[in-house]
Design goal:
The chain is an alpha/beta fold. The chain has 13 helices and 15 strands. Helices cover about 40% and strands about 20% of the residues. α10 links the parallel β11 and β12 (about 295-300). α1 packs parallel to α2 and α11 crosses α12.
């Protein structure tokens, strides 16, 4: 059955479908509809909703709930996401699964609370200190908000790490008719075998992610943000510290496959690199350009992090130019330049005034640099 729903509402529905049973959050524009929806949905699904006193406490409650054995989530926007950075690093170091939704608005500081932006994408990757794994998914439609929220929980449980779903205000407040599935494929974290003694929460025998017991399951184990050994207890031994840092990074980077969408790229001479609402404008610009005989295509990263280096490199080897279009002053263009390896010219179309990039401005960015062959 087709339903007309908002992007933020789709996020809440996706979380419930994925098995989320705890939400700890603090309302903030433009993500507040997620908290409002979860406040209604969780009690109906044997879950718990708690409005915390701030964003720091919000993610702390989510980490605690996850260690208690339930899938847990919070939602925020740029200013609140900034406050969550220390706990994001803690969850990454302690390997606690959780999902964080960041509905981006104009910044910095209070900025433009009700306007779209894509200014958080580098903070998503580098906001917390230290080397750590990072998975960030970027939907561009209401249906994809639902789907990628489900996927975020699955990836979080699989890799025992926080996962961020990051999208702009337009996607969050957009209403579209979507067909939502009755059930979705879900992944639950692996747990230790019953009666295992001793239980070593960071011992990796097969694969790179250890089973995680829940508090109350009968296992005694230590959780810390300090560098630790396989028991979870702090250590300053350089060998163990280095091995832990490498394992945390490699458990994601070593197995993550590029999540991208290719649109009309097969014969393209120019590619647009865009995500979120800008990618939708790019698709219309591509149709307009094609009607004028200009061969343009789109590479849309569905996962912003880990960055789709191999996909960008392949496109750069095919086209003459890549136009990086973003609602910021140029955050991902450096990553595209790095990944392209000098194989294509990289130009940017950047906007940070609180209004979206239009298909016409993208078309102009393309046609100003291209002469159509007669």
């Amino acid at each position: 059955m087709t339903r007309l729903i908002q992007g933020n509402q789709a996020c809440a529905l996706g979380a419930i479908a994925a098995g989320c049973r705890f939400f700890g959050g603090y309302p903030i524009t433009p993500s507040s509809e997620i908290a409002e929806s979860m406040a209604r949905l969780l009690p109906q699904n044997d879950g718990v909703f708690v409005q915390m006193e701030d964003e720091i406490a919000s993610l702390a409650s989510v980490i605690g709930a996850s260690l208690g054995g339930v899938k847990a989530m919070t939602a925020t926007s740029g200013p609140g996401f900034s406050l969550m950075q220390e706990h994001i690093g803690y969850a990454a170091m302690a390997e606690v699964p959780c999902v964080i939704i960041d509905v981006m608005r104009g910044g910095p500081s209070t900025g433009l609370p009700t306007s779209p932006s894509q200014g958080d994408v580098m903070q998503v990757r580098w906001g917390t200190h230290g080397d750590r794994p990072c998975i960030a998914l970027a939907p561009h439609s209401v249906k994809e908000v639902f789907d990628l929220t489900v996927e975020a929980f699955n990836l979080s449980e699989r890799y025992r790490t926080p996962v961020v779903v990051v999208y702009d205000e337009v996607v969050g407040h957009l209403r579209e008719g979507v067909d939502l599935p009755a059930t979705v494929p879900t992944i639950d974290r692996s747990k230790p075998e019953p009666g295992l003694d001793p239980y070593l929460p960071k011992a990796v025998s097969e694969g790179v992610v250890a089973p995680l017991a829940a508090f109350g399951d009968g296992y005694r184990f230590h959780v810390t943000g300090l560098t630790h050994d396989e028991r979870g207890f702090p250590t300053t031994d350089p060998t163990r510290a280095g091995a832990l840092a490498s394992r945390l990074q490699n458990k994601v980077d070593g197995s993550f496959v590029d999540m991208v969408e290719s649109f009309m790229l097969d014969d393209a001479d120019v590619a647009i690199f865009a995500y979120g609402i800008v990618a939708r404008a790019a698709k219309e610009a591509i149709r307009l350009a094609r009607s004028e005989g200009i061969k343009v295509g789109l590479l849309r990263p569905i996962a912003l992090w880990p960055f789709p280096t191999s996909s960008v490199h392949s496109v750069a080897a095919q086209v003459d130019r890549i136009v990086v279009a973003e609602l910021n002053l140029g955050q991902m263009i450096g990553e595209v330049e790095r990944a392209s390896g000098g194989l294509a010219q990289i130009t940017g179309l950047h906007k940070a005034d609180g209004s979206p990039i239009s298909p016409q401005s993208l078309l102009e960015a393309i046609t100003n640099r291209i002469e159509v062959a007669s």
